[in-house]
């Protein structure tokens, strides 16, 4: 199921406006995304989720201390008292990428649990930000320029807010990607980059389920509303439209993508135009 067309159009308008605002509200963007996926989510549901985040923030101690104390206090509240965490099965559920459902269930993907940590801690005045480790999103407290030094503390919301040393973070990256941790990856993640990563996760989830191609489509279309996004997403959307039988719209999208890349990748543009021609031929 998904939102009705008129409702979806309104969610998307607000999503685009918020994404282009001077200081995008991460929780609101996540909830507007949720509205695309859940036809039962309405304005009252969005307000209720924001109120829940406010209420959780109100349960944190007043200025508990430095970054480590903040990280410990948030972990005790969210991971301990309220039981927010993740399990392997959460990777198989779309709800794990929807903020209102994560708040309801106390379960989700690392990046959505990190959004909960960030939004609750931010409301309480903590120096908090997302840290986009490859394969496993975590949260940082303290200075985002410290890059693993004592004034930066990392926490893993997927594991209940477990505090991570630099060595722990290096091991986490090695386990999930087989690569090494570049210190630059410990910098603060931009809210819009967080949104793009959430949408990429949804697209990956849908790609493994052919009956959910409509989910992949709206995730692509929301990604294209972000001010900065990979141009290739336009190509992927056009391909998906063709796969779903919307040959005319898909062919039009392929031609538009070919026009974008023609000056820098003429061979690619020619190939994509052939794909557009093949898509139109399926109309006959």
TrEMBL record:
The lineage of its organism: Bacteria, Bacillati, Actinomycetota, Actinomycetes, Kitasatosporales. Belongs to the UPF0162 family. It comes from Streptomyces lasiicapitis. Residues 50-200 form the Protein SirB1 N-terminal domain. This is Protein SirB1 N-terminal domain-containing protein. InterPro entries: SirB1_N.
